[in-house]
Amino acid sequence: MVEGKVVVVTGAGGGIGRDIALAMASHGARVVVNDIGAAVDGEGRNAGPAQQVVDEIHALGGEAVPSTDTVAEAGNAAKIVQCAVDHFGRIDAVVNNAGILRDRFFHKMSVDEWDAVIKVHLYGAYFVSRAAATFFKEQNSGAMVHMTSTSGLIGNFGQANYSAAKLGIAALSKSIALDMLKFNVRSNCIAPFAWSRMIGAIPTDTEEQKARVARIQQMTPAKIAPLAVYLASDAAKEVNGQIFSVRNNEISLISQPRPVRTIHRSEGWTPQTIAEHAMPAMRANFYPLDRSADVFSWDPV
């Protein structure tokens, strides 16, 4: 599917990123395996995870090189993209998968907890994509695959920083798709459901929580990889600006915000007429305070 292409996968030292990197290589891509080797909260540095995945790809007969630069700084993100060009002579796709978690209820969240997550997820997706965009524009081709989340698309408890970043990534992807369409550059999002260390801290204090974790554990990171490979391939040349979710063997196309109900008043509105007319007319179409689990309420098989 991606024979001869050069693909950068960030956060590829484990979990979803690792499986995407392995799948890209197994389908013929040359891969830059990027990972700083940090803990889930972004602390620490270790070159081992990236090199280990590179070694796995080499053992399978594929081509790969490690990168341990951070996506959260523009200069270092540019080095990740340059690594692909230096080693393989070009770059054809980026998968923005790197991420950290610093979960906290909003009224307790510190500025550092907010900033760290936004930097890695949203700034990271921007920095890597922006660095790749220069090459994509020159060669008149390229594909970007970004990891969003239903925590941002729908909602979740205790993740204001992560949710804001992930919804921002969906908007960033759509803007890239619009701005770079004339250069044959595509940009799409995946909202993955998969067990990884990123969600390994989910509490298991009750039988209900244990059952939920057991269900999530069945959703392996390897289930996400096929869609990422497809979106990076030429077979997906007509797929642009879309958001998909993957849960086990289930792929969903996710809706994007559009008007649901419109109320018009020829003489205009006052706060009182909004209260008396507009809101009562729209109330039946209000969205409840759903979380991701409320919308995806069935178990995928």
Write up this protein.
- The protein has 301 residues and is of the alpha/beta class.
- The protein has one domain (6-256): NAD(P)-binding Rossmann-like Domain (Rossmann fold).
- It has helices at 15-26, 48-59, 74-88, 111-139, 150-153, 160-179, 207-217, 225-232, 271-282, 292-295, and strands at 6-10, 30-34, 63-67, 93-96, 142-147, 185-193, 243-247, 250-253.
- It has an eight-stranded mixed sheet with strand order 3-2-1-4-5-6-7-8, with helices on both faces.
- Helix 2 links the parallel strand 2 (30-34) and strand 3 (63-67).
- The two termini are 26 Å apart.
Q: What is the CATH C-level name?
A: Alpha Beta
Main beta sheet, described? 8 strands, mixed
What's the count of strands?
8
CATH superfamily: NAD(P)-binding Rossmann-like Domain
Q: Classify the helix fraction into a percent range.
A: 40-55%
Strand arrangement within the widest β-sheet reads 3-2-1-4-5-6-7-8
Q: What are the low-pLDDT stretches, counting only 5+ consecutive residues below 50?
A: none
CATH architecture: 3-Layer(aba) Sandwich
User: What is the CATH topology classification name?
Assistant: Rossmann fold
Précis, in short:
InterPro entries: KR_dom, NAD(P)-bd_dom_sf, Peroxisomal_Beta-Oxidation, Sc_DH/Rdtase_CS, SDR_fam. Residues 5-201 form the Ketoreductase domain. The protein is 42% helix and 14% strand.
Which key terms come to mind for this protein?
301 residues, Rossmann fold, alpha/beta
